[in-house]
Each structure stands twice: as structure tokens, then as C-alpha cells.
Amino acid sequence: MPTDMVRDTAVVVLLRVFEKGEYIDTALDRSLRRRNLSERGRRFLTHLVYGVARHYLLCDHVLTPLVTRPLESVPRPILTILRMGIFQALFCHQVTSPSMVHTSVDLAKRHGHAGTAKLVNAVLRRAPRSLDDVSLPSSTDEPVAFISTRYSIPRWMTSMWIDELGKEAAEAFCKASAEPAPVTLRANQLRSSAEQLMAGLAKTGYRAEKRTAIPEEATVLEGIPPVRSKLFQGGHCFVQDPASMLPPHLLEPQPGEKVLDLCAAPGGKTTHMAELTGGEACIVALDRTTRKLATTAENIRRLDAPGIRLIQGDGKMAPFPEGTFDRVLVDAPCSGLGTLRRHPELKWRTRPEDINRLAVEQQALLRAAIRLCKNTGVIVYSVCTVSQSETEGVLHSILDSEPVRREDGPEWLDTWKNGIGTYQTNPHHDGLDGFFLTRLRKQS
């Protein structure tokens, strides 16, 4: 009997992610393009890959007492197969236990030998059949250990969030971060409204609805992103979390203005600003690498977004005179910890020292943006994280030393307002990725 193609592909993708450092979406997209899978197979492959990455620590917690040797000594393909088996046992209720064991043993034969197949068979036959059967640390006596294990969050990260958010909010955030995020689209309003996009999607078998007050947002109710559909290929939409749609609205670019997107790739916010101004603003999209700018250029082409100029350069030393731009967007490089639902691999790659390093870079970028902005112009700073060092910490440092003041954006954004000119989204509050945004007005 041939090896299950979907599960075999999942093993290959997970090895690329955890052994070669590829991003999940990149590795998965490459395999989806190469393998001729049914729509159901594509969905299950996506579910397996993201599920194992999300629950990596929990899977290892379950495996540790079942495997008679240290997990680090198990060959990586076999350990990946074991993690996939545990994930299926705990979270894939449509997969029977015999099927999970049988397909896992077949994979172990393909990626190992008879001995590793026996190991996989012995371990997975003794695996718990539901979360209720998993022994976890006490949530009362060992809150860090409990949250970290149950929701697969590194302990240092769990401790940081408990310190910054409090135990209940930290647990709620970690719980939400371990859940799949919905597929959300931004309608290209130069071509169609959100309502027209949803109607077009319905004709191709995708059901979608509006879940926020953001005009362009449309949330797909089930399935994977419709990137192969004619609507997507024809530039009618962009795959983007609703929280990521807020920075251009907070910046409020106007026709006729000169606008700088200081960290533009992959172009989601750049093209959004072009749409908001009807293509009648001069938008400069700056980024450091040729590869990222090539992706930005492709998105600009597909969306047919007008009025955008691409320039390669370091945002901290942008090649423009002081006071060149009416408005500047700083969507700064960050830890991305507010997007763990979509990028679960980030929690295994981020280190405590990365937070402070990024905060230093974010301050430098924001200071450069203030220098490049005209007097009385507007700067928006946004990051897709919730760590205090990268959010309030950066803002307070800037307010103490730069000629800017916070000011509120449009009133309809007040749903996410948490202070004068500052806005926060959270997956456990509003179902959006965790973003922090602030709007600043440059003083004369």
C-alpha cells in the first residue's frame, strides 16, 4: 500500500521549517505547488503542518514518557512523525486511532527502517486519545509551566507575558495564539468592495462574511486562502489580517501628498495606501533587500496599484532630505509575537535578547521617520507584537526626546483605542492579530 501522500508531504514541510529554518507559509506553498493534491488533501496538509508547529511543546511533553530515550536522540524525520501522530490523536477527531498508527508506521518505514517503524508503532499505540488524558502541570501551583506546556509557548515568553499582562490575560493570549487564525482578505477597492468580493467568492465556492468595521475586510469562513482563484490572481484582493489593515487608515494619506512607507515589503500596506488615495498620492516604498522589493513589485503589479515608487535602502539612513514627506508609515521589523496564530514557528525562533535588539532598531527607524516628515506632518508607528519593550517602551523613549505628540485617528478606530493616539488589537479580545499602533504629529 503506498505511503499517504498528504502526511508524507507534511513530514517534508515540517523538516524544512524546523531543520532548515524556512517559514511555514513559504515551505507549505512550495509543496502545494509541486503536489497534485485534492482540495481536501490541501486543507488536511495545511492543518497538519500548522497544527504540529502550534502544539510542538505539548506533543513533546506527551512523547517524553513514552519514548525510552531522549527525544533529541531520535532521528528528526521519525521525531516529526511521532509529533504528527500525537497531534492527530489530540486534535484531529476525524482521524481514528488505528489509522493514525498505521499511516505513521508507514511513514517511519519510508523515512527510516524497520526498527524506527517498531518504535513509532510502540509509542503511538500507547499515546493518549484526548487532551483529557494528558497529565499537565498544575495551573494554580505552576502557572508558567502549565501555560507553557498546554499552549506550547516557550517558558521565557510565558513568564514575560505573565509579568506584563497578568496571569489571566497572559493565559487568554497564549490560548488564542495556539488557535488557527481565520483566512482574511483585503478587498482592492480600486476594483471591488468587500461586498462585491464576497459575492464573487461565493460563486467560486468560498463563503465569506464581514466581521469588523474595517471597510475592506472579508473573512473566509472555511478552507485555505483562495490564492488560485481568478479573483485573487486578477488583483481583487490581498490576503491580510484585519489588524494589518489598520495602519494605513490611522495614517490617513490624502490625494496629492508625498507619503513614505519606510519598511514596505511585502507591500500590503503600501498598496492599501495607494487604494485609499485613489492612486493620486506619491507613495515611496522603501525596503532593504532586492528580494523583498521584488515581492513588493509583484504585489503592486497584481493589484495594479498606481502612484508607487520602489527604492532600495536602509530606513535608518533613507536617502531623502529632512522634511520631504507629508506622512510616514513605520511598520517596523519586530518579533511578530502578535501573529503566532499565523506564524507559529516564530515562537521557537525568537530569543529574549531579540526583543531588546529589535526595540533599539525600532527606535532608530522611528527617529528617522520623524526627521523625514514635514513639520506638522503625521507619522504612524506599528508593530505586530505585544511585548512592552517594542510597543510602549519605544513610544515613551521617542516622546521623551523627539518633537512629536500623540494624536487620535479617525473615531471609528476607537474600538481598538487604549490611550491618546494609541491602539491595540489582541486575538483573545477581538479575534485579530496582536498589533500596536500609534499616531504622532510632528511639531514645528
SSE diagram, text form:
Blueprint: H1 5-20, H2 24-34, H3 39-54, H4 56-63, H5 76-91, H6 97-111, H7 114-125, H8 143-150, H9 155-165, H10 167-177, E1 183-187, H11 194-203, E2 208-209, E3 217-220, H12 230-233, E4 237-239, H13 246-251, E5 258-261, H14 268-276, E6 282-287, H15 290-303, E7 308-312, E8 325-331, H16 346-349, H17 352-372, E9 373-383, H18 392-399, E10 404-406, E11 417-419, E12 422-425, H19 427-430, E13 435-442
Parallel strand pairs: 5-6, 5-8, 6-7, 8-9
Antiparallel strand pairs: 1-3, 1-4, 2-3, 9-13, 10-13, 11-12, 12-13
Helix pairs in contact: 1-2, 1-3, 1-5, 3-5, 4-5, 5-6, 5-7, 6-7, 8-9, 8-10, 9-10, 17-18
Task: Please tell me about this protein's structure.
With 444 residues, the protein is α/β, with parallel strands linked by helices. It has 4 domains: 5-132, NusB-like (N-utilizing Substance Protein B Homolog, Chain A, Orthogonal Bundle); 136-177; 183-239, Alpha-Beta Plaits (2-Layer Sandwich), CATH 3.30.70.1170; 242-442, Rossmann fold (3-Layer(aba) Sandwich). It is built from 19 helices and 13 strands. Strands 5, 6, 7, 8, 9, 10, 11, 12 and 13 form a 9-stranded mixed beta sheet that branches. Strands 2-3-1-4 form a 4-stranded antiparallel beta sheet, with helices on one face. α5 packs parallel to α7 and α6 packs antiparallel against α7. The longest helix is centred in the last third of the chain and has 21 residues, at 352-372. The chain is globular, with a radius of gyration of 23 Å. The N and C termini lie far apart (75 Å).
